[in-house]
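Onboarding guide, step 5: your first structure request.
Type a short instruction followed by the sequence, for example:

Predict the 3D structure of this protein.
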Amino acid sequence: MQLTDCMQFRTMSAVWLQLGQCGNQLGLEWWQLLTNENAAHQESDRYPFFARDGKLSALCVDSEPKVIRKLQKQIKKGVFRDSNLILGQSGRGNNWAYGLGARLCEAIRDEYPLGYILSVTVAPHQAGESPLQHYNSLLSLSWLQRISMGMEPWELLRSVCPNPTMKFLYTAQACKRGTAFWDSLISSVVHTLPRESASGQPHFSTSVLAVARSNQDNSFLLSQNSVLLKLKQAYRCVTWNPFPVDCWIDFKNIIDPGHHSHSLTVCANHSSVIDLLEWVTEKAQVMYKAHAYLHWYWKYGCEEEDFQQAFDTLQSVMKDYSSVEH
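The system replies with structure tokens like these:
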């Protein structure tokens, strides 16, 4: 698993940290959107992405130079601070013990114990990328589970994490131009939503946040109650949460600026994360019991305790999600 973005929040400031090939590729898409000169950006859109001197509030880190060099070429010249581009000359061999992601998050947590960290990760394909990917996913997810929340949740966590130990979020998004048909956007958003586990157990959501963006159009307000009710039903919100669906509205669609467009983004604390955690744990357990590739981790200081703690952490998360009644 590759760590992609990590945001460290302090009073009136935010830092965007992009790590590795995947993180910097995602960052490239995001910064292209924000620095697009053809889009009608307002000064307020620049926060929290730009510093006062006009430079991006981004740190780009990779153990190889290729992806960051591409990022420099394709993003508006001068918006990156040269000192914030940190490059190595050789890779890390897809080895978590030799990599950077979780370690940097841990260092941030140690330095700013009350800060807010939001970690965005991209899971690998189920097979074929690297023989070490199951170990890396296990160790990354476990590490981030332990360090990715501060003392108090910020606004996103307050909306979608009623239980502090359950903080894996499922997101989906749909965007369309022209006349707003919010029912159509809902259908697009929920189309790929996992309905049940491999064993036939229906999935549920402890809470859901909907973000509706529409360029100078109040059509969402007219259908808001209907939209939220449909989302509540589609995401199978738990009955014990009296206010399971929250909604944020933006009258400008930054996802598709410069056009008459509408988008709906849904972030849900969804139990389908159990499927991912079970798959990662089972695959890693098989390899671990066979002592496969473990010498690569011992070589860089990883210990048996790290693996055992990782297994225990993910088992605890799965137990918490499984024990919440629908």
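Each response can be followed by summary notes, for example: Residues 114 and 151 are 6 Å apart (CA to CA).
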